[in-house]
Amino acid sequence: MSRAEQIIIGDRLVTWQDVTAVARHGATLTLSENAWGRIDNAQAIVQRIVSSGERAYGVNTGLGALCNVSLEGEQLSRLSRNTLLSHACGVGTALPDEQTRAIICAAIINYSQGKSGIHRQVVEALIALLNHGITPQVPSQGSVGYLTHMAHIGIALLGVGQVSYRGQVISALQALSEEGLSPVELGAKDGLCLVNGTPCMTGLSCLAIADVNRLMQWADVISAMTFEGLRGQLDAFDEEIIALKPHPGMQQVGKNLRGLLAGSEVLANSKGIRTQDALSIRSIPQVHGATRDQLTHATRQIETELNSATDNPLLLGTPDAYRVVSQANPHGQSVAMAADLLAIAMAELGSIAERRLDRLINPTVSGLPAFLVSQPGVNSGMMIVQYVAASLCAENRQMAQPAVIDNYVTSGLQEDHLSMGTSAALKLHKVLENVTQILAIEYLLAAQAFEFFKGPRFGVGTEVAWRLLRERVPAYDEDRWLAPDIASSVTLLKNEESLETVFQVCRDYAQMHNDNNTRHSRSPGATSAEQAGASSRLTTDINEGVAAS
């Protein structure tokens, strides 16, 4: 899958894909000339304020509850440095490198708006951290929305603290030196710019969006396999029926399921074996579709924030005609709610997956051997792995409690309503990791169910998905150490190329099927019976091709 090797910020709206390209895939980041012009203009306003002696919050005053303390001269540089050092008080384990890189990227995007007043050299130093592979060690806990995470990033610019560099954790000063970089000298407002705003929650949420998009696709694939293994009744996914409830996400899931299951002889042979499937089986479009619709909303909220100016104060105008406005744009309520919403939606995606996989191992409802082994009793089979999925679902229910509704009083009553957006985003990442594990378990079980079908063909997409897993995990004939199998399944779910392979085969099948129907409908001598026979032969031919892939 091709990816951008360079992301240029400053002349267009930025997307979560841009952040992910830099943070996760190592794309270089640069700013456009227009962006640098905006940054320089805002810094010139700062210099005009400093030289005039006009009091402006955060430019030449103390911070938070100390906003009425006026500062001047060398005190302003000291304030910036001291702000970073005093705010770098986070606790807990360090964030993964990609998460810290996402935060840095989102901060740079904020500064590119030209409303912050930060010095050009500070932005250049942040870009250098990304492009030189120097990643500050940022404690994961301690943020009420902003401040601590960015402070730990900021002190690395001073040569203070620890960084991840070339696979090792070393001092920031050493890493800068090895890359030929010097510690940054801060000026007026730089310290406040570096700790303020919403880049922490926004950058983290951008990575989460990437993971949600991938997991939703895999959830459709894996649920289709489970549906087929349980011999579900395909009428539940009928296009005309699905269209009667026109939620966009539901329509897409229905389309995906029909494409994945196209050509399934298992389902064709099972038509009418029961009047109605259990809800966890027949409501896949409704539940998965609702998650997709929440993602659409959350993405809009997060990308809007990503393209916003989120400092306090904000600098408007030019050095000759400016405004300094103290306001609340660093408050990240929209992002916090979006992250909380996604956590709820993804917890539900994991919950219905656990219900499906439980049905696969239960012989009273599956029609398959107990716990998916041919000799249950002497083998426990897939009995306990369902326990694992249930445990992860329980954790997700706890983490689905919204973070945004928690509130505390900080900064001597100055900051008395907080978003907790960073907590929401971090919690979302934990939910996503749990959902990945749950889907990986369902994938293992659905693939194992396929082993008990020896004659009929599977769907065009489910066949490919089954074979992709079997390249990594053999069939489960008798009890063995299961943890490595789950880990292998997880690795596959994080592989975007494999996911694309599944859906590309489905698209190719649909296109060939449509082309064939078009050709035969235009053939003047073809009878209806001949056309139907040709369509059937095409289905067989293509299924054979899928099986070989």
Supply Rg.
Answer: 28 Å
Helix share bin: 55-70%
Distance between the termini: 18 Å
Largest sheet: 3 strands, antiparallel
Mean pLDDT: 91
Class of secondary structure makeup: mainly alpha
Strand content is 5-15%
Quick recap:
The chain is mainly alpha-helical and 549 residues long. The protein is 59% helix and 7% strand.
Description:
This protein has 22 helices and nine strands. The chain has 549 residues and is mainly α. The chain folds into two domains: 6-196, Fumarase/aspartase (N-terminal domain) (Fumarase C, Chain B, domain 1); 206-308 and 350-505, Fumarase/aspartase (Central domain) (Fumarase C, Chain A, domain 2). It has a three-stranded antiparallel sheet. Strands 1-2 form a two-stranded parallel sheet. A two-stranded antiparallel sheet has the order 3-5. Helix 18 crosses helix 19 (460-470). The longest helix has 31 residues, at 199-229.
